[in-house]
Amino acid sequence: MPRYALRVEYDGQPFSGWQRQADHPSVQGAIEAALARLEPDVPSIAAAGRTDAGVHATGQVAQCDMARDWDPFRLSEALNYHLKPAPVAITACAPVPEDWHARFSATGRQYLFRIITRRAPLVHEAGKVWQVKQPLDAAAMQEAARHLIGRHDFTSFRATQCQAASPVKTLDRLDVEALPREDGGQEIRLHVAARSFLHNQVRSFAGTLERVGAGAWQPERVAEALAARDRAACGPVAPPEGLYLTRVTYPEDPFATQPGP
């Protein structure tokens, strides 16, 4: 069966997460329903990462196996037609070898976490960012973030229900970017990259760094929390609406030669 890689963008607000569930809407379920309109017996699809309820994506990658050969552009166009009105879009589609896997062939994942600081309620960005009412010190957050870079036991920064075999991961990037806003607030963006992540790891980073930015924690306390290897030592877990899966990397980019829809 011909296999295709799909680059997927979605608003996570109306979904219970990526993974298909019997009684709740999911991104996987929406895409599989669209595929079923094209071919009735399409097997289950797989994704590079199972994002939680409320988490967004601009660069999720999934795979699907089709019964017949499709022109990639026509497949993406047909899927986008049948995905409406769900807030999900296929932004690229490419044929891949039958042994290629969206999850297991991936060599890296990149996330963005967005925080907006202002007191007035958000209108246009509600549900798309974490709103914090007090100003944040981005320089202090960056100083704290440096303690997390590299290979560590991240037990303090993973969910208790995390099913990963080991808490040891290598964090390649955790950059803090501060952008001024015309409304007088600021947007803090956390750019995070690693080969793979633990459950709630990025949201745990965001919640902990927010405590540093607010002045409740000194930057050195992040190093102490990491060394404790104890979930209780971590700061609060940030809400899901600020998190975006922005890119998945592979030894060879499957979309490099494919025009986007």
From TrEMBL:
Protein name (record): tRNA pseudouridine synthase A
Active-site residue list: D52 (nucleophile)
Amino-acid positions noted as binding substrate in the UniProt annotation, renumbered to this chain: Y111
Matches recorded under CDD domains: PseudoU_synth_EcTruA
Domain of life per record: Bacteria
Keywords: Isomerase, tRNA processing
The organism's taxonomic lineage, starting at the top: Bacteria, Pseudomonadati, Pseudomonadota, Alphaproteobacteria, Rhodobacterales
UniProt source species: Palleronia caenipelagi
Family: Belongs to the tRNA pseudouridine synthase TruA family.
EC code: 5.4.99.12
Reactions catalysed: uridine(38/39/40) in tRNA = pseudouridine(38/39/40) in tRNA
Domain Pseudouridine synthase I TruA alpha/beta as annotated: residue spans: 8-104, 144-251
InterPro entries (UniProt xref): PsdUridine_synth_cat_dom_sf, PsdUridine_synth_TruA, PsdUridine_synth_TruA_a/b_dom, PsdUridine_synth_TruA_C, TruA/RsuA/RluB/E/F_N
Subunit record text: Homodimer.
Gene Ontology annotations of biological process type: tRNA pseudouridine synthesis
MF-aspect GO terms: RNA binding; tRNA pseudouridine(38-40) synthase activity
Reported function: Formation of pseudouridine at positions 38, 39 and 40 in the anticodon stem and loop of transfer RNAs.
Pfam (any one): PseudoU_synth_1
Gene: truA
